Amino acid sequence: MNMFQKGFKSFFAGIILAISSIATAQAADDGAKVVYHVDFKDPTRYSATLTSINNILNFYESELMEPEVHLVFVGYGLRFTTDDDLKGTPYEADQPLLERREELKGRLQSLITVRGVKVELCDKTRDEVGLAKDKVYKGVELTPSGVAKIAILQSEGFSYLKIQ
């Protein structure tokens, strides 16, 4: 192989490596978009969701990626967005929630204010039980339909996660 062929081969390998890096970076950016879905009533499962969100944010940041994480509450998830006990509704606060409410609220507020997580509550769920808008935690935005919000985010390339 002459010098020209060696130089061309090295140049071509460099181009392939650069294209590969760009494709990997694009895939990584696309992967940094996640939507979590909370429609359950178990405080332990919800706690695991908050932990998972922190873990994924830590990973993305360690990879120098700019994550966009949404947390969408629907149905029973309403319980985790208010201090109201929701008496007389299907979502009424039970003892396990009452025991952990302050801790869970603090962790959610930290995700919103410190980590930049976008948090949305299904306004249909809120309206269904007559919960006043001012009873929803600060930083929790209302979305007309939680499941529609999730579907829209997925169509925009967000990965769907739901902690079991």
What would you note in describing this structure?
The model is unreliable at 10-28 (pLDDT under 50). This protein has 5 helices and 5 strands, in the order H-E-H-E-H-E-H-E-H-E. Helix 2 (43-62) runs parallel beside helix 3 (95-113). The longest helix is centred in the first third of the chain and has 29 residues, at 3-31. Strand 2, helix 3 and strand 3 (118-122) form a beta-alpha-beta unit. The N and C termini lie far apart (59 Å). It has helices at 3-31, 43-62, 95-113, 123-128, 146-155; strands at 33-38, 68-73, 118-122, 140-143, 159-161. By secondary structure, the chain is an alpha/beta fold. Strands 4-3-2-1-5 form a 5-stranded parallel beta sheet, with helices on both faces. 51% of the residues lie in helices and 15% in strands.
Describe the secondary-structure layout.
Layout: H1 3-31, E1 33-38, H2 43-62, E2 68-73, H3 95-113, E3 118-122, H4 123-128, E4 140-143, H5 146-155, E5 159-161
Parallel strand pairs: 1-2, 1-5, 2-3, 3-4
Task: Provide a brief overview of the structure.
The protein is of the alpha/beta class.
Mean pLDDT: 88
Low-confidence stretches: 10-28
End-to-end CA span: 59 Å
Number of strands: 5
User: Strand content of the residues, in percent?
Assistant: 5-15%
Query: What summary fits the major beta sheet?
Result: 5 strands, parallel
Judged by helices, strands and strand pairing, the structural class is alpha/beta
Q: Count of helices?
A: 5
Helicity, as a percent range: 40-55%
Helix and strand pattern: HEHEHEHEHE
Shape: globular
Estimated radius of gyration: 22 Å
Across the major sheet, the strand order is 4-3-2-1-5
